[in-house]
Amino acid sequence: MPRQPLAAAGKRSAARVNYAEESDSDDDMKQPRKRTTRRSTRRSKEKDDPAFGKAKQTSSSSESEAEKEEEEQEEEELPKRKPRSKLLASLPARRRNVGRPATTQKTVSKKPTIAPRSVHRLNQHHHLPIVPLRRLQQQERNEPLSPYELARERLHVSAVPESLPCREDEFAEIMGYLEGAIEEGTGMCVYISGVPGTGKTATVLEIIRHLQYQAEQKTLPEFDFVEINGMKLTDPNQAYSILWECLDRSEKEQRKRVTSAHALQLLEARFSTAQEDQRTTVVLMDELDLLVTKKQTVMYNFFEWPNRPFSKLIVVAVANTMDLPERMLSNKISSRMGLTRINFQPYTHQQLYQIVESRLQGIDAFEKDAMEFAARKVSAVSGDARRALDICRRAVEIVEMRQKQQQALEDNQPKKATTTNATKHVTIGIINEAIREMFSSPSVAFIQSCSLHQKLFLVSVMLRARRAGIAEVEFGDAALIHMQACKWHLIEPPTTSDLMRVCESLGQTRALVVENGRMDLGMRITLNLMEEDIKMACKTDKVVGKLLTDT
To answer: Which of 13, 18, 309, 11 is CA-nearest to residue 188?
Structure first.
């Protein structure tokens, strides 16, 4: 019993020895702290005795020089190694790559790579002039064109004629406005309206060509021209960036792309103050119907800037709706804008005949009765010159195809007389065949197979969109037109729930784009069919056709 305390005491003493050893090792690890304390004491001594500090500096410098000499002697005594490139050259080819890190994808790219982003650029500056495809093909081909090929070239919608017939009055009026504003250095706004295919954009572009030619001849002050097409913009506010990019006079290297909000601020500052050597800027805003926003700020700004005294901005707005400014802006604001309005009426059958005849001048491929028949057919539906050109172009393709087939038969059977005698000119029958091909599209066949109320609702949506000037309408507005049409023609009107089911059925076939998640009067609807297809399909219907003719 008395030995147990002694053993315990021995264990405690051994533990104390171990603890002392560990504390000694810890003190060795904490030597840098002692150095810091020594440094602090040295600094205090240097402050008290400056001679002590100078002596210490000289001794430390002598010690560092001695250490450097010893290191140089050791390096000279060591054997010199060959460079790595010479060592690898002396090795065999199979052993040269030994020891080199493999250049795999993991070792090269340790950080995650950033995915490339595509940048959408507006108003790109091309270094080389763009040549139209058909003109380029004609330059490369030295062979003369056949009458059918020449007719197809001239009847193409994108072919630019030497003159624009049947729009001489509108041409002279717009030309006078723009020429006077450029000479005086003032701003103005011209609003051009009309149904599609009446030559609005083509007339304006032809006027710009004439004005630019006058500026080159020094008979008119120089001006800048900017074209903004609503169909090419994903956001209406991008119009600010396009306009500022063209007005920026700085060098190309110093130009920076700006956001729409920043471009709006820069334009506001530019049009509010006088600028040195500021030239007039003509802006063509095509498809203005698609630049409609919730607060209508884009339309308001572009209509308001020309009225400022320092702007020198001329805005030519082109739209399909005649009263779009009054519908989108209040009457007080639109009247204060001071818009100059010009309306393009649809082409008559005499004008359409003159347009087709001017393009086919000097080409013996059409009969006069065939051209007049095509002009009357198109003018009865829409008065769209583009549709008349497409029909005549398709008729030329049919005649050309039949001529080639007959020539192939004659080449294969030269001795036997062929029974088929293909005509060399476009006749009324071929025009009628081309019309049936163009208007017998799946959408026209679908509309003709619809019920009466489905046709009426499609026409109601089309009329409401035309009156509002925007593509998206509300179900309640279209339903009101539908109910009124039923009362006018003594047809029992459907209930709201029945008409909602009619709208839902048209939405399932994608004839209408219907807003998801709503089944009320505020549901938004967009027409997903061409107006010309609806007119062509419904013109033979007594009720729906009369509704179209009344409007």
So the answer is: 309
